[in-house]
């Protein structure tokens, strides 16, 4: 049986590592663009929306359908880029060691 103090210190260590990982995720920013490059969306590593840039040509009422389509395309593009970015830093050996 493990010493309770050892278990507690391991838990504190894991909590610190989780917080560090969460901060790193929030600091990771990727930008996706619509196919026509008229909408750009920036998201962080937790997939929270950070910024949206919309071309003035899409800001008239006649372009509403295109605007919605472009926003969806830009968000999907940002998600794909984020997935690629996250896999670059993913350390499978560290995860395995944490799980025992």
Q: Kindly identify the CATH topology.
A: Ybab, Chain: A
- What is the rounded Rg? 20 Å
Distance between the termini: 15 Å
Supply the helix-strand structural class. Answer: alpha+beta
What's the count of strands? Answer: 3
The portion of residues assigned to helices is 55-70%
Kindly report the name of the CATH homologous superfamily: Nucleoid-associated protein YbaB-like domain
Briefly, what CATH class?
A: Alpha Beta
- How much β-strand is present in the residues? 15-25%
Q: Provide the spatial order of strands within the biggest beta sheet.
A: 1-2-3
Largest sheet: 3 strands, antiparallel
What order do the SSEs take from the amino end to the carboxyl end, as H and E?
HEEEHH
List strands and helices in order, with pairings.
Layout: H1 4-27, E1 29-33, E2 39-44, E3 49-54, H2 64-89, H3 92-99
What does this structure look like?
The chain starts with a helix and ends with a helix. By secondary structure, it is of the alpha+beta class. The protein contains 3 helices and 3 strands; from the N terminus they run αβββαα. The protein has a single domain (4-99), classed as Nucleoid-associated protein YbaB-like domain (Ybab, Chain: A), CATH 3.30.1310. The protein has a 3-stranded antiparallel β-sheet with strand order 1-2-3.
């Amino acid at each position: 049986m493990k010493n309770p103090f050892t278990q507690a210190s391991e838990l504190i260590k894991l909590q610190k590592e989780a917080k560090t990982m969460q901060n790193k995720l929030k600091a990771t920013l990727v930008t996706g663009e619509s196919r026509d490059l008229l909408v750009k969306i920036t998201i962080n590593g937790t997939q929270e929306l950070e910024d949206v840039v919309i071309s003035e040509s899409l800001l008239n009422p006649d372009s509403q359908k295109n605007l919605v389509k472009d926003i969806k395309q830009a968000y999907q593009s940002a998600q794909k880029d984020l997935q690629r970015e996250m896999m670059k830093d993913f350390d499978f050996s560290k995860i395995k060691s944490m799980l025992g």
